[in-house]
Write a structure and sequence with these properties.
The complex is a heterodimer of chains A (275) and B (320). With 275 residues, chain A is α/β, with parallel strands linked by helices. Chain A is 36% helix and 17% strand. By secondary structure, chain B is of the alpha/beta class. The chains are: A alpha/beta (275), B alpha/beta (320).
């Protein structure tokens, strides 16, 4: 059986742009990797490829679009399947909401010992809570008469922790065992949006510290990696940036930020990182 | 086995209409049973999730979901209504989300993340104000779970109780009151206690409020054995306004009641600065202190003998 890498991410966590850029690099032979066979169905990334080559921001995949997708990758002697059991990401939300993994997910989890979790930190909301603010008398006064306005929504950190707990459970693990079988690579996507010089680990620590505690105490440190990814390289919102894409081609852009903070322009290296 | 045969004329399980010696071998009986088990499968499907936890707070009868491997450590959160017990739990998770860590333990999971997160949502600042959790209904004991791992990677399940304050006030007056069942359950099963002292109540109701705390403390003492108690002065941002005499007397009386394995700490939800010791540190220190006492006690249960006893290394240990 081929080694398989499981790609997990909420809607709009940059899975499409990554896979589209990844595929283009392989096609244009800009990577050490190759495809070991033709991809059966490219339709999930078709629109994104079109947009990028026209220098346009790709439309986001409709979240409810439930398409599975995989790339058959030749990595030296190995054949690796990069699998995305469901593309839109809606099912990832549903795993936590409905507390259920469908058959496709169960099989993918069962067959893969390399999990890649895409997190787009800029879309992670950290609302102010009482521990963040210095309380004034004004706050206290309004406290007394407030009716609770609570959205029926779980916070992002709790979401990711529960998602991993459910997936681990399906794999036969829980917090009683320290994971020494499955490698987890947390990929902080749309890195360019964050304008930071920090290392990916430190960024995760400052944005989602409890999630970091959770993965660090459940994974053997050798099997845990935190990296950054900008699949597009920059936003395509200025004529100059568009021009770059139009002239050089989208596959020339995008970069990875490795755990030690160094950047590499070959986003297909993510496969080596994840193995 | 209870149940009816698929042949309505048949009296099985009393005897078989078809004359079989054992009614369970009869095809009509069997077909009735198969139908029944089918309907059970369908109801299971409607429940959908086959995960053994829901993320909600645990009820007493669900404790096995956490304790099936190791006994969990139960912390009884005790105090009168509106003393800040649930808000304390909310603040605890809020601080964990913020990245504040326990001294000797790392967070490695929870079976009750929805309940924790709901508490956290209440402490969010919305339109410049905070909602705070609603009072816990009298009939409930909710148990919140944390899985923690210590530095030597040993796992400990922690449960914190969330029960209505009323039941503790009733219990403090009459240990056997039938309405105080939840308080008795928590008292019996907890390995440690957090006793809430409401500074605001001491400001407003003065000595009356103090007497209630002392009554509750005395009830906590009756069968306490070596279980640690930490007295938490909640809403301590206003502690200065509590009359000095009341503060001193209460302090003195509590230390007389509890003697050993006892500590006091001031907590608050309202920071005057950032970081604020009462808010960002002490809310976590409550657990740090309890764990330090509990786990030191466990350690001293086994002592290594100096003398050489033999080849069996386990004989070198004895329970003190």
């Amino acid at each position: 059986m081929n080694t398989s890498i499981l790609l997990i991410g909420k809607p709009h966590s940059s899975k499409t742009v990554f896979l589209s850029q990844f595929y283009s690099r392989l096609q244009k032979k800009k990577s050490n990797l190759k495809l070991y066979k033709t991809v059966d169905d490219l339709s999930p990334i078709f629109a994104a490829r079109e947009s990028l080559s026209a220098g346009e921001e790709p439309q986001t995949t409709p979240a409810e679009k439930s398409v599975k997708f995989y790339l058959p990758i030749q990595f030296s002697e190995k054949q690796i399947d990069l699998r995305c059991p469901e593309y839109g990401g809606e099912q990832v939300l549903s795993i936590v909401e409905n507390r259920e993994l469908n058959k496709e997910w169960k099989t993918s989890i069962n067959e893969s010992n390399s999990w890649v979790l895409f997190i787009r930190l800029n879309s992670v909301n950290k609302s102010l809570d009482i521990s963040d603010i210095t309380f004034s008398e004004q706050h206290k006064k309004s406290t007394e008469k407030t009716q609770s306005i609570i959205e029926d929504k779980i916070s992002d950190q709790s979401f990711f922790i529960e998602l991993l707990q459910i997936i681990l459970h399906s794999k036969g693990y829980d917090y009683h065992l320290i994971n020494n079988k499955v490698k987890l690579t947390i990929v902080l996507t749309c890195w360019d949006e964050m304008n930071t010089e920090e290392k990916p680990y430190d960024v995760l620590k400052s944005k989602l510290p409890l999630l970091l505690n959770f993965v660090e105490s459940n994974w053997n440190s050798e099997l845990l990696k935190i990296i950054g990814l900008s699949a597009q390289g920059f936003a395509l919102d200025t004529p100059e940036n568009k021009e770059k894409y139009l002239i050089e081609g989208p596959e020339e852009f995008g970069y990875l930020v490795l755990a030690d903070g160094t950047q590499t322009n070959d986003i297909t290296q993510l496969i080596e990182e994840a193995l | 086995m209870e149940g009816k045969c698929s042949n309505l004329e048949c009296a099985a399980p009393i005897n078989c209409h078809e004359g079989k010696e054992k009614y369970i071998d009869c095809e009509f009986w069997i077909s009735a049973k198969t139908k029944q088990s089918k309907s059970i499968t369908i109801t299971k499907k409607e429940n959908k999730s086959d995960l053994p936890w829901t993320g909600e707070a645990l009820k007493i009868e669900e404790l096995i979901k956490v304790t099936f491997r190791n006994p969990a450590l139960m912390i009884g959160v005790v105090g009168k209504a509106d003393a800040g017990k649930t808000t304390y739990l909310a603040m605890l998770f809020t601080l964990l989300l913020r990245g504040v860590k326990l001294q000797d333990f790392d967070f490695c999971g929870t079976k009750t993340i929805k309940a924790w997160d709901e508490f956290y949502q209440k402490l969010k600042v919305q339109k410049e104000s905070v909602a705070f959790p609603d009072p816990t209904p009298a009939q409930y004991i909710r148990l919140l779970h944390l899985a923690l791992r210590n530095k030597s990677k040993l796992l400990k399940d922690i449960l914190l109780s969330d029960a209505s304050g009323e039941v503790f006030s009733i219990w403090a007056q009459n240990r056997e009151d039938e309405r105080a069942e939840n308080a008795r359950w928590i008292y019996k099963h907890s390995n440690a206690f957090i006793l809430f002292i409401d500074c605001e109540d001491l400001i407003n109701r003065k000595n009356q409020a103090k007497t209630e705390v002392v009554d509750l403390a005395q009830m906590l003492k009756h069968d306490l054995k070596s279980r640690p108690v930490i007295a938490v002065w909640s809403k301590s941002d206003r502690k200065e306004e509590v009359h000095t005499k009341i503060k001193e007397k209460l302090k003195e009386e509590l230390s007389e009641i509890f003697e050993k394995n006892f500590a006091e700490i001031d907590i608050s939800n309202f920071s005057a600065e950032d970081p604020d010791i009462l808010v960002h540190k002490n809310n976590i220190s409550v657990l740090d202190w309890l764990f330090s006492v509990i786990f030191t006690v466990t350690k001293t249960e086994f002592t290594l003998e100096d003398e050489y006893v033999g080849n069996d290394i386990f004989l070198n240990y004895k329970v003190s």
